[in-house]
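Q: Hi! First time doing this. I have a protein sequence and I read that you can turn it into a structure. Is that right? Here it is:
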Amino acid sequence: MFADPVFLRFTRVPEPPPDGFERTWYERYEKGKADGTRRNFAVVEGPEQVFVGFAVAPSIDSEERTAELGYGITAANRGRGLATEVLRVLTAWAFDELGMFRLQLLIDPENIGSKKVAERCGYTFEGLLRSLYVKPGRRGDTESWSRLATDP
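A: Yes, that's right. Below is the predicted 3D structure, encoded as structure tokens:
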């Protein structure tokens, strides 16, 4: 996925990813798993457990009961409804397992597919956060989408 231009465009992964980035990313999530501040999951399919994407909670605040969620699907597996299913499962996990009250998605305004996934999963568009997105060599606007435990 770190070689996929669409994935790189719409994520915080540096372009190009520096050597060893995968290991650093994984270690950051392992530390977060241990202290309860972030989680990552592989999305696999079939008896061979073929990797088709990932799901993340890059920011978990247990005290405030809020979390940011994210997801990514490999290029070969996009357009099959996997992102919607992944976000549904991730949302249920955050509400049911973590006891979160507010979940947030930060989406690039040009990422039409991700915005459709958010809508299908019951997230509400909150507004545009100007110049929030920071990536080496790039700064841009970000849309905020949320879902509350009390939402239908």
